Amino acid sequence: MASPREVIHLIERFEPNRDVYRSHNYNETEARREFIDPFFKAFGWDIDNKQGYAQARILYNRRAHVRE
Question: Where are the domains of the chain?
Answer without folding.
Answer: 5-67
